[in-house]
Write a structure and sequence with these properties.
The longest helix has 14 residues, at 104-117. By secondary structure, this protein is mostly helical. 66% of the residues lie in helices and 0% in strands. Helix 10 packs parallel to helix 12 and helix 11 (153-161) packs antiparallel against helix 12.
Length: 189
């Protein structure tokens, strides 16, 4: 185990990547050391620990959530990506908050993780659509469209028909409606 963890944190990307499958094969035994490394002072070490945790089928969603607020944007992105592999309803609130991350990759990955969670994420996403800034509303609306839940139709219609909405918001509203099979021409009476 020690040699695998040393390879993971060696700074050599090929060695680190090669160690992950062996760590995953060790099963739950590898989780505690990886979780410890995920709190290391070095951002690169934290990133590789999250990368290895993402690959393990034994990783719990709760273990990844705190890393969405890591000071390093690379670690936050890795945590959001890991949550795509380990989606759980307990991550919804943190992922919705992460839609506003200053790093656009992290925000996009948070949206993808919400899509993986699916319908349970819809109420929170609909709430965000009410009063959040466009930087958050855009990935939220994209996620709603990809989830394809009919509860999102009213907000998509509102966004599409509101001439004060940005073109990007209107685009994602239209895409969402098309994914729901509602790709018709909308005319104001």
């Amino acid at each position: 185990m020690e040699s695998l963890l040393a390879a993971l944190t060696s700074g050599d990307d090929e060695r680190a990547e090669a160690s992950i499958s062996a760590l995953v094969e060790m099963g739950e035994v590898a989780l505690a050391p990886l979780l410890d490394l995920a709190h290391a002072p070095d951002a690169d070490t934290r990133w590789w620990a999250i990368r290895a945790l993402a690959a393990s089928p034994h990783t719990q969603t709760e273990s990844l959530i705190p890393h969405l607020s890591d000071p390093s944007p690379e670690v936050r992105a890795a945590a959001a990506l890991a949550l795509c592999a380990h989606p759980g309803e307990e991550a919804i609130e943190a992922l919705i908050k992460t839609l506003g991350d200053e790093d656009s990759l992290t925000a996009g990955l948070a949206g993808t993780a919400l899509v993986k969670i699916g319908s349970p994420a819809v109420p929170g996403l609909l709430e965000v659509m009410k009063d959040a800034r466009n930087g958050i509303r855009i990935p939220a609306l994209r996620a709603l469209g990809e989830i394809r839940d009919h509860r999102a139709i009213p907000i998509m219609m509102k966004c599409l028909n509101d001439e004060n909405e940005s073109a990007v918001i209107q685009y994602w509203a239209q895409q969402g409606l098309e994914r729901l099979g509602l790709d018709m021409v909308y005319i104001k009476p």
